[in-house]
Amino acid sequence: MASTATTLDRLRRDQTATVTSVNIHGPQRRRLMDLGMLPGTRIHIDRVSPLGDPTAYLVRGSVIALRREQARGIHITVEQE
Amino acid sequence: MAEDLPTPSASPPPAANTACGTCVFNNAAQLRALGVDVSGHDHVVALAGNPNTGKSTVFNALTGLRQHVGNWPGKTVTGAEGGFGYRQRHYKLIDLPGTYSLLSDSQDEDVARDFLLFGQPDVTVVVVDATRLQRNLNLVLQILQVTGRVVVALNLVDEAHRHGLALDQRHLARELGVPVVPMTARNRQGLDTLLEAIEQVALGTVATRARRVRHGDDRTEHAVSELAARLRRDHPGLANTRWIALRLLEGDPGIERAVTDGTLDRLSGATPHAVSSETTGT
Boundaries of each Ferrous iron transporter FeoA-like domain copy (chain A) (predicted)? Predict the structure, then answer.
């Protein structure tokens, strides 16, 4: 299965990805990791707000909404179907 | 059928109407909800867990109180207290605000963190959502680093089963090193097993071996030990100095503040179990 490395803000609605690293620092990093956003976590888009920001992602059975700039700090590999 | 069974307890529980109700094997019948009466308690039990896992439902089931239950975060801001009796003992139960982590820096999560670290409850019941186990285990592991006197209440198993999830609580208990009790607090299912586990951990009749996370290399270990020893010297009686040392090495601003502004002195002098009321008072 081929895969493409990118950041979470570029994930499309029909795609599933795996988190490879969380390139965010300070308390926000801690928070995201406490919510289950860890390297190896599978993630896909749950729903998108009307203006596209924030976007809600499904992570380990829970929905987490992120701003685009936060999503940009999360590195992923997209699974190719 | 149980009428002529010998009762081993010194003071038998209040008589129930049915034979099964008075049976010594019926643990739930030995529960006495004491409401807000926490006088003369033998043990302090803390209820911790992620937001919206059913902590307050467990709290109400045990104490008979009607602590407000709702499914939004931040509902329980300070710890509510209640009492219950089980067999011959009285327990004080503290319903802590939901938290994802002991490492965060938000106010209501601090209440939970401070109590677990410095209130030194005799038993900590971590209520976890069986339908979101992975995410919930983060907090369980963090709590196991600061206390081994833990019972994991695997709540919402009815919902998990409805979602087609199979739960292997024995395996989980073996991995975590503490009792794991599957339950549906809403229907009072599993309450008897939970009470039994709380009593066993409180009395030490079951040996828990909490899973500890190994921290990296010898240099980290050396730094932690050295810093922890200094903390113990400067703040005699302070609990969990290793944990504090690790946070200081991480550069946790909340803990750094606690060292410089005298909070640690207050915590080290504080009577165990009394931390939550003190932190809200200042």
Answer: 6-78
**Sheet strand arrangement including A55-59:** A3-7, A74-79, A16-22, A42-48, A55-59, A62-66
> Over the stretch B30-76, which tens digit does the pLDDT of each residue have?
888 787 777 778 999 999 999 989 998 999 999 887 766 665 655 56
Q: Which of B104, B132, B139 sits opposite A60 (nearest CB)?
A: B132
- Interchain contact, B103 vs A30, CB within 8 Å: yes
Paired tokens of B282: 């200042």
Does A40 touch chain B if contact means CB atoms closer than 8 Å?
no
Per-domain residue ranges of chain A: 3-79
- Write the CATH number of the domain with boundaries A3-79: 2.30.30.90
Whether residue A27 and residue B105 make contact (CB cut-off 8 A), yes or no, is yes
Q: What domains are defined for chain B? A: 31-203 (3.40.50.300), 218-281 (no CATH)
A13-56 tens-digit pLDDT? 999 999 999 999 888 888 899 889 999 999 999 999 998 889 99
ipTM above 0.95, yes or no: no
Q: Compute CA B211 distance to the chain's CA centroid, rounded to the nearest angstrom.
A: 16
B100 touches chain A (CB under 8 A): yes
**pTM of the predicted model as reported, rounded to 2 decimal places:** 0.80
Inter-chain contact A62–B138, Cβ cutoff 8 Å? no
Q: Residue B2 — very low, low, confident or very high, per pLDDT cuts 50/70/90?
A: very low
